[in-house]
Amino acid sequence: EVYAKYALELLINEEKLREMEIKQKEHVLKNYDGVKNMKRLEEISLYMRNGLKDLGFDVWTSETPIIPVVIGDMMNCFTFWKDLYEEGVYVNAVIPPAVPKGQSLVRTSYMATHTNEHLDAILEAFRKVGIKHGIIDRNGHSLIEV
C-alpha cells in the first residue's frame, strides 16, 4: 500500500513536470517570436532611417521605429502630408508648438509586419513627394534649411 501510494505520487509529479515543461516551451516559443519581431523591427528602422537619409531627408537623430522627417514650413508640411496620403502612405503631421517654428515634420512609424515591398513603396512615395515639394533633389540632397 505504501509502495502504491509512492508510485502514484511519482506519476502525479511526473505529469506535473511534463505540464511545466510544455508551458515553459510554449513560453519560450512565444517570446522567441517577440525576439524575432524586435530584431525585424530594428532592421526595418535602420533600413528606413538610412533610406530616408539617402534620399536627402533630415530624420534628426532618431533611433526608434518612429522616425521624424523634417519638412520645414508648416503649410508645406500639411500639403506634403496630403500628397503622401494620396500616394498611399499615412504619416502624422507635427507642427508648432510641438516642434520649433520652421521645423514642422511628418512622423513615420513602422511595425515588424511591414514587408520589404511596403518599405520600398514608402521610400518611393517620399522621393516623389519630396522632389515635388522642393525638399529634396533627384540626387539625394536636402533643399531646405533647418
Textual characterization of the structure:
The chain is 58% helix and 11% strand. It has 146 residues and is mainly alpha-helical.
Residues in helix, %: 55-70%
Which of globular, elongated, flat, extended, rod-shaped describes the shape? rod-shaped
Main sheet properties: 3 strands, antiparallel
Radius of gyration: 25 Å
Q: What keywords describe this structure?
A:
146 residues, three-stranded antiparallel beta sheet, 3 helices
Short description:
This protein has 146 residues and is mainly α.
Any chance you could write out the topology, listing elements then pairs?
Layout: H1 2-55, E1 66-72, H2 74-86, E2 92-94, E3 104-109, H3 116-132
Antiparallel strand pairs: 1-3, 2-3
Helix pairs in contact: 1-3
